[in-house]
Amino acid sequence: MVGTVRLELHIAHSQSLKDKRAVVKSLISQLRNKFNVSAAETAYLEQWQRTEIVVAAVANEMAFLQKELDAVVRLVEIAPGVELIAVDTDYCD
After folding, report:
1. CB atoms near residue 76 (< 10 Å)
2. pLDDT for 43 beyond 90
3. What integer best gives the mean pLDDT of the chain?
4. Cβ atoms of 61 and 1 closer than 8 Å
C-alpha cells in the first residue's frame, strides 16, 4: 500500500525565498528523520509565503499507513511559523 498526503502551507513570517526555503527545508528534514517517509516541496516554488509539500509512505497494512500519515499531519500542524491551509490524503493498493 502507498499513501500520500499533500500539505498546503502558509509561512506568514517569510520575507524572502531564502526565509521560506529555510523553513521548508527544516520541516522536510524533520519529517524524513522522524518518520520513514519521502517528502518534497512540489508547488509554489517561487512564492515567498506559500508552499505545498507532498509526503509519501509505503506499508503493508492500511492501519499503519493511516496512523503514520496522521502523525505527519499532526507534526506539521504544530510546526512553528507554519500554518496548515489544506490537507489531501490519498491511498493506493
Report:
1. 20
2. yes
3. 95
4. yes
Q: Identity (one letter) of the amino acid at 45?
A: L
Give the three cell numbers for residue 74.
499532526
How far, in Å, CA of 74 to CA of 82, rounded?
A: 12
| Single pTM value for the model | 0.92
What angle (nearest 5°) sits at the alpha carbon of residue 62, between those of residues 25 and 87?
Answer: 40
Contact 68, 3 (CB under 8 A): yes
- H or E stretch at 41: strand 38-43
Task: Please state, in angstroms and as integers, the Cα–Cα distance from residue 10 to each residue in 17, 29, 81, 86, following that order.
Answer: 13, 18, 9, 10
C-alpha cell at 55: 509526503
17 membership: H or E segment, kind and range: helix 17-34
CA gap 91, 62 in Å, rounded: 9
For residues 73 and 5, the answer to whether their CB atoms sit within 8 Å is: yes
